[in-house]
């Protein structure tokens, strides 16, 4: 099977030249680069750092004069070229390198035409552009990865640590996932659990590749490197809820049997209801208390679609509506 052909189009107004090696290296994962173009006003001193990189990496500069102060003239040139390349039929995908949300509609339009769209940009890239791409990669992650391999610490990492108190009200030492604006790891864990349970209902094993593929389809910027891991398998191995099994060179993922015995849960639920006396306890309040005590409690693990159904399955309890139409749990009697 031949490698896919890609056009790499770079917005020099929004991307630093320090990323170019990382960009080209990352694209080797997806296919062969047939177009390498960068857009900017090459008469401006702001583009001087790019000029050496263009020669060394054989990137074609496209001149776009800034005719109006404050307007990003490179956007229209890049968009027009992208559509021209699309209609030539010479590529199967595009890599748009920019941190500008103005390319959101372009990414969507290219995907509507069946193109794979790889987006690359800095942390500041708006979610609208990230979501419009097939896959989106944070360039800072790629630079951090390269620097770690050479034993260096990036200036970016230092700047994030120093700026932590000002970013979204975060304080020093808080979760870097929050600072980077990436998908919370707990959300990813819940999605993986849902995928495994869905396959289990169909008597089907869940492969490592399927999990990776479905996560990227749902979150275009999902990348295990955002969480400090080099591979999806290592990422999953570190999560207590999952276990990996290898057989005949195929890796499957399962949910560990951390299930709390139903009898133990039922006893605790009854205890909470009794503690509230004749007033009973609202179903949602009861649910919160169960989750506070048992972090890994998932009602679907016991075959119920809702927590209310789980409560109703306990013979000693009954659920009634109060005058405010709230569902309240009482001791049956």
Automatic annotation (TrEMBL):
Domain of life from the UniProt record? Bacteria
Q: By its UniProt entry, which InterPro entries does this protein fall under? A: LOTUS-like (IPR041966), NYN (IPR021139), OST-HTH/LOTUS_dom (IPR025605)
Which Pfam families does the record associate with it? NYN, OST-HTH
Classification via CDD domains: LabA_like_C, PIN_LabA-like_N_1
Q: Which chain regions cross the lipid bilayer?
A: none
Boundaries of every HTH OST-type domain copy = 184-257, 261-333
Q: Which residues form a coiled coil?
A: none
Name the UniProt record assigns to this protein: NYN domain-containing protein
Species per Swiss-Prot/TrEMBL record: Bianquea renquensis
Organism ancestry: Bacteria, Bacillati, Bacillota, Clostridia, Eubacteriales
């Amino acid at each position: 099977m031949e490698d896919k052909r890609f056009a790499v189009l770079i917005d020099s107004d929004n991307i630093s030249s320090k990323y170019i090696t990382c960009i080209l290296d990352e694209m080797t994962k997806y296919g062969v680069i047939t177009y390498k173009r960068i857009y900017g006003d090459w008469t401006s001193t702001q583009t001087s750092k790019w000029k050496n990189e263009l020669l060394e990496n054989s990137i074609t500069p496209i001149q776009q004069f800034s005719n109006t102060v404050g307007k990003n003239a490179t956007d229209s040139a890049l968009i027009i070229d992208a559509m021209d390349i699309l209609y030539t039929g010479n590529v199967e995908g595009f890599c748009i390198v920019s941190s500008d949300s103005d390319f959101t509609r372009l990414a969507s339009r290219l995907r509507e035409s069946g193109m794979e769209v790889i987006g690359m940009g800095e942390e500041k890239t708006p979610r609208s552009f990230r979501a419009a791409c097939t896959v989106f990669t944070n360039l800072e992650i790629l630079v951090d990865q390269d620097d770690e391999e050479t034993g260096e610490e990036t200036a970016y990492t230092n700047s994030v640590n120093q700026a932590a108190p000002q970013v979204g009200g975060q304080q020093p030492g808080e979760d870097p996932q929050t600072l980077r604006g990436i998908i919370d790891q707990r959300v990813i864990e819940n999605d993986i659990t849902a995928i495994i349970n869905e396959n289990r209902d169909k008597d089907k094993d869940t492969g490592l590749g399927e999990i990776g593929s479905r996560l990227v389809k749902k979150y275009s910027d999902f990348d295990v490197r955002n969480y400090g891991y080099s591979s999806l398998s290592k990422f999953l191995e570190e999560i207590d809820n999952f276990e990996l099994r290898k057989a005949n060179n195929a890796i499957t993922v399962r949910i560990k049997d951390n299930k709390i015995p139903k009898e133990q849960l039922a006893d605790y639920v009854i205890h909470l209801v009794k503690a509230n006396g004749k007033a009973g306890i609202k179903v949602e309040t009861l649910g919160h208390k169960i989750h506070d005590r048992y972090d890994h409690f998932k009602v679907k693990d016991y075959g119920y679609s809702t927590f209310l159904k789980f409560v109703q399955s306990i013979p000693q309890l009954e659920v009634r509506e109060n005058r405010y139409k709230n569902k309240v749990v009482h001791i049956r009697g």
